[in-house]
Each structure stands twice: as structure tokens, then as C-alpha cells.
Amino acid sequence: LLLKFSIPAIIGMIVNALYNMVDRIFIGRGVGSLAISGIAVGYPLSIINMAFGMLIGIGSSTMVSIKLGEKRKDEAERILGNALVLDVLISCLISIFGLLFLDKILNLFGASHDTLPYARNYMKYIIGGAVLQNIGFGINNIIRAEGNPKIAMATMLIGALVNTVLDPIFIFVFKMGIEGAAIA
Predict the structure, then answer these.
(1) To 10 degrees, the CA torsion angle through 28, 30, 33, 39?
(2) For labeling, which of 19, 74, 82, 128 is most exposed (least CB within 10 Å)?
(3) What is the DSSP letter of 172?
(4) What are phi and psi of 146, to 5 degrees?
């Protein structure tokens, strides 16, 4: 049972790390070193966003597991619904707050005059998509908790593969630069 759940989780985490590396490789080659610095400046904001998604996902997955173990499927489904609503609400607040104060936040995280445009152009899409990201972070934990670790891993693999395919297309073919990487 430990292997059944841990191996897909480990693979998913490795894929997630590769996802970030692939982004930086394509951005470094297609946009430049200042763009990589811009992403690094915005990274704490991404981590804060992810932390809220994981907070909801891990907490609710624990409750879902307990309810499923008690054979109370209706309560588990109610928890899932509440987690989804909470995830959407918090993500919307993060998006609104993040977009309204994006330059100030990025300056607080160390953006310079040179890196701020890159950080802004990347993070406006990342923060604008906070709802979708956090649903993925949160619900993925619940999928794993309900006994489907391979599906949770597959969702992470699909996201990484799509990003790996779209990054070069958006950056090099469509000449969208750092914004293309964020959209991918």
C-alpha cells in the first residue's frame, strides 16, 4: 500500500520539478537571463499561491479519507464540494490582490528596474490563473486520498507534457516570449 501511493507521488513531484526546469531552459534560451531573474523574483508569489491550494487540498483530503473509511460517502462528497468552493474563493482573492498590487509585491520580493517587466509579464498570467492552479493542487490530493494515486500522478504528467510542448511553440514559433511561457 505504501508503494502504491508513494511511487506515483514521487513521480509526480519529480515531474513537477522537471516542469520548472523545462520552463527555465526555454525561457533562458528564448528570452534571456533577465527573464529568468524575473521568474525567480515572482517565484515566492507562486509558492504562496501553491501553499493555499495545498492547505485546502491536504486538509480536505484527510477529512475525505476519514469519511470514506467510515463508509460515509455523502459526507466525503460534501467535503470535496466545500474544498472546491473554498479553493475557488481563496484563489480568486489571491488573483485579485496579486494583480492589483503586482508591481509592489514584485518590488518587495526584490525586482529591479531591469527584471520587473519580465516578472510582471510572467506573473500576471500565473496569478491570473491561480484558480486553475489551486484546483489542481487541492483536488489532486483528494484524488490521491480517495484511492487513485495513479490518476493524481497522471494529471501532473499531463500538465508537464502540455507545458513542455507548448513552451517552445509559444516562445519560439509565436514569438510570445516570457508571456508565452506563462500561458503554456
Answers:
(1) -70
(2) 74
(3) I
(4) -85, 0
